[in-house]
Amino acid sequence: MAKLEKNVHVTEYLNQNIKTLSDLREVHKNIKETVESLGQQLHEASSSLPSEIDYATQGANNTQTEVTDIQHRKDNLHHQVVEHVRNQQDVCKELEKVTTEIQQYQYYLAYLQLIEEVDKMSSDIQTAISDIQTAMLTDVTSNAVESFQTLTHVYHKHSGSHCKHLLKFIKDTILFWYKILHEKLASDFEETLKSVGWPMIGNTVKSPPVHSSQHYELLEKLFMSLLAIQLPQSVSDKQDELLLPLQLMVLPLKKRFKYHFYGNRKTNNLEKPEWYLGQVLGWIRDHSTFLTKRIQPLLHKSAFKSISAKMEFIRGMVILVTDKMKTDLQDIMNDEHIFSHLIDEAILFDRELQGSHGYPHVLPCCLDVLTAGEAFNGWILIEEKFAKGKMDLMLSSETAWQSQYQGLMEMDEANLPECAESFITLMLTITDRYKSLSNPENQLRFVDLQLELLEEFRIRLVQVMDKHDPLGEQSCAIFNAIYYLTEVLQEWNNSAHFVQLQYFRKQTQPCEDSVTDEVSGMLEGIFDASIFLLDKLTEQMFKNLVHYMYTDIHAHSHLYRKQRWNILPTTKDSLGLSINACEMLLVLKDHLLRVESLLNKPIFTKIWQRLAGQLNKMVVSEIIIPNQFNETGASQIEFDMCRNLFPLFGEYTQKPENYFRE
C-alpha cells in the first residue's frame, strides 16, 4: 500500500515538471543538487552531535562534584554545630537557672507590688475616713468609696489566682474597711431616713411631714455611696442579700416586727398568723409610693438599674415572715387546726403579694417554708384529711342527691346533684391552693392527692348506685354526676396548667421504650386514667338503664307479641290502636318521661336512641319475622308503629322512623 502511494507521488511529480524530453535534464540536475544538500546537512549534524553530548556530560560531572562538595561542607557544619551545642550546654543550663530566678523575682515583685497597692488603697481609705463626714456629704464618689471600689475590683481581677493567702489578705482588708464604712454610712443614712419620715407608720402616713430638698439630696448621696460599697458575691459570705441601702431601710421595720411578734407579747399568738401577715402587707402598702417615686430613680442612676426598689423591699418583708414561720413551725405543726389556719393565711398572703403588688413567683415566698421537708408532708396529710372529711359530709347530706337549681333553670345543671357540684368545688379549691407553688414537683404531689380523691369519690358513687334500681332518683343523680365529672376532667385535661404538669412529669419520668411510645406518652392527659374508669362506669350505667327499661317494656308487650295477625277481621271502620299495645306503650311513655325529667339531656338522648334500637329489634325479631299477616294485620301493625310508637319518640327527633328502619 505504501509502495503504491509512493509510485503515485512520483507519477504526479513527473507529470507536473516534465512537459518535454528537454525538461528531463533540468529535473535530474535539481534532484542531484537536492540530494547533495541533504547529504551535507546530515554530515554536519553527525559531526556536531558528539560535541553537544560531551558538553552535557561535562556539566553533569561538574554538578555532581559541586553536590559532593556541598555535602562535605554540610557535614562539617553539622559537626561544628553539635560541638558548639555540646560546649554551650553548661552555659544554657546556667542561663535557664538565671531566667527562672528572674521570673521568680518578678513574681515576688508583682506579689509585693499588689500588697503595696492594697496598702496604698487602705491608706487612702484611712485618710478619707479621718474626714469621712465631709467627704461623703460633698461627693458621692468620695475618695474612701473610690478606693474601696478599686480594692474590690483588684480582688475580682485576681480571684482566679492560686495565691490563696494573698486573696485572703485582700478579702480581709475589704471586709475590714467595709465594716468601718458601713457603720459610718449606715449611721448617717438612718438619721437621714428619720428626717424624711421613714419608716412611714401611723401618724407619718396620715400626715407626712414637710421636708426640704436638702434632706432628699443628702438621702440620695448616702444611698448612692451605700450602693458603691455593696459587697460583690465573691466577697460576701451571704447569698442573695438585699441591696445594702434597702437592708437599712428594712431594719427599723424589722425591729418593730420582732418587738411585736416575738417573745411574750400578746401579739405573738400562734393562733393568729394573720396579725403579722396583715401588718407586713400594711407596711408594703404604706411604703410603696415612697419606694417608687424616691428610691427607684436612684437605682436607675446606678449599676443596679434592673432591680425594683419595691420588689427588693417586699423581699425583705418576706424574709421577716419566713423567719417568723420557721421559728413557730415546730410548735404549730403539733396542732393540725392551727397548722391548717397558718397554711390558709400564708396562701392568702402570697396571693395578695402576687396579685396586688406584682411580686414575682420566682422570688422567695412564705410558701417555701411550708413546702420543705416534714412541713410539706404535714400539709398534704391535712389537705387529704380535710378533703375526705368534706367528702363524707357531702355524701351523707340529706340533699346530697338533689339539685340546688331544681325548677330554677332549664339547663343540664338543673339535674346536677349537690354532692357532685360540691366535689368539683372541692377539687377547684385544692387546685387554687397549690397553683401558686413555684416547684412543679410540689404541685404534682397535690395532683396525686386529687387523683386519689377522684377514685374514692367514684367508688363511693358505685357503692350507692348498687343499692338502688337503675331508674331510681339516686341512680339517675349518680348518672348525672358521673357524666358531669367526666366532662369537667376532660376540660381540665386540656387546660394549660395541667398540660404543663403532665409535661413536667413525663420529662422527669421518661419512657424507656421507643420514641413513638415516648411521644404518645407525652400526649396523655393527667386525668386520662380517671376518665377511662368513669367512661367505663358510664357505659355500664347506660347498659343497665336501657336493659331495665327494655325488660319492663318487653314484659308488658307479651300479649301484643303473641297476637295472631293473620286472622284479624276486615273492618270498615278506621283503624285504632291495638288493645294489646296500650299497656306496652303506656309503660314506654312513663319510662321516657321519667328518664327525661331525671337525666341531663345528653344522657337522655343516648338512652332513648339505644332504647329505640332495642325496640326495633324486638318488633322485627319477635313480631314481624315469626308471624304471618293478612291485609288487616299488616295495616294494623303499620298503624301501631307509625301512628303510636313513633310519635312517642317524635318528641325528641323530627324523624323517629329513622331509628326503626330494620
TrEMBL record:
InterPro entries: EXOC6PINT-1/Sec15/Tip20_C_dom2, RINT1_Tip20, Tip20p_domB. This is RINT1. GO terms for cellular component: Dsl1/NZR complex. One of its GO terms (biological process) is regulation of ER to Golgi vesicle-mediated transport. It holds the Pfam family RINT1_TIP1.
